[in-house]
Amino acid sequence: MGEENSTDSRPHRPRLAWLRLGLIAALAAGVALLSACGDDNERQDADEPSGEFRVDVVDASFPLEQRLAETGYLRLTFENAGDETVPDLAVTVWTGDEMASEPFSVRSDQPDLADPNRPVWILENGFPKCVDDDKVPPCIPSDQASPKEIREAGSAGAEAAQTNTYSFGALQPGEQLEAIWQVTPVQSGTYTVHYQASAGLTGQAKAVTEDGSPVEGEFVVTISDKPPRARVNDAGKVEIQGD
After folding, report:
1. Sequence ranges of the domains in the chain
2. In angstroms, rounded to a whole number, what is the distance separating the alpha carbons of residues 93 and 120?
């Protein structure tokens, strides 16, 4: 038996050696890949200019009183109010005091939860969209920005590594861009939705107001669990009525 075991084990020795060599090669390749990725990140950081870029909030709207299951829109219009091109207009949206993993979710303090993030609104697929006469496509021209055309347009805000940050690209001096999120509330209560704009994704390019403050704002929204009142008008269409 001992001889059989010894004979059977001999063919595995070269295979084991090759496996070891393969593992060493794979580890070396992995280290080289990580080094290359690090170089890419450094190059990306180097490409983003550092400094402050003047950005104004021209308009910001979100219904402050909403009902469960009624779709609404968060609309934010930004303008490059400076003399230099904003490298990459990025907008971060979050709900509540502590940032959750999704822009329209909140973090629950309830212990023993597998996922502490709880959605307050559901973000419609394909959103955000944008309206910008200088970026057609992917944005929609302002004279064609009907609700139907907005819904049918492709997504324009590329989601960044942070899942609640959206990148809309460069913004030329004087250019305006309206970012639109379509959401549906699924949780009643009162919530604060925050937004903040930046001039890039790495933190080197900062968006600031005229007095040097961050470009930010918030909405305090109350979502009611009461069903909406509806009536049929003279044209035979259903109209949703407020309180």
Report:
1. 2-47, 51-241
2. 13
Reported confidence tier of residue 237, pLDDT bands at 50, 70, 90: low
Question: Could you tell me the two tokens for 242?
Answer: 């407020």
The 8-class DSSP code of residue 144 comes to G
- CA 153/CA 105 separation, integer angstroms: 25
φ/ψ of 41, rounded to 5, equals -60, -40
Q: Is 51 left (phi over 0), alpha (psi -120 to 50) or beta?
A: left
**CA geometry: angle at 45 spanning 39 and 49, to 5°?**
145
**pTM of the full predicted structure?**
0.74
Q: What is the rounded CA–CA span in Å between residue 82 and residue 212? A: 12
Sequence-ordered strand ranges (E) for 68-214 = 72-80, 90-95, 105-107, 117-119, 121-123, 129-131, 158-159, 165-167, 176-185, 189-198, 205-208
Q: Cα 42 vs. chain centroid, distance in angstroms?
A: 23
For strands 205-208 and 51-61, give the pairing: parallel
How far apart, in whole angstroms, are the C-alpha atoms of residue 166 and residue 85? 18
Class of domain 51-241: mainly beta
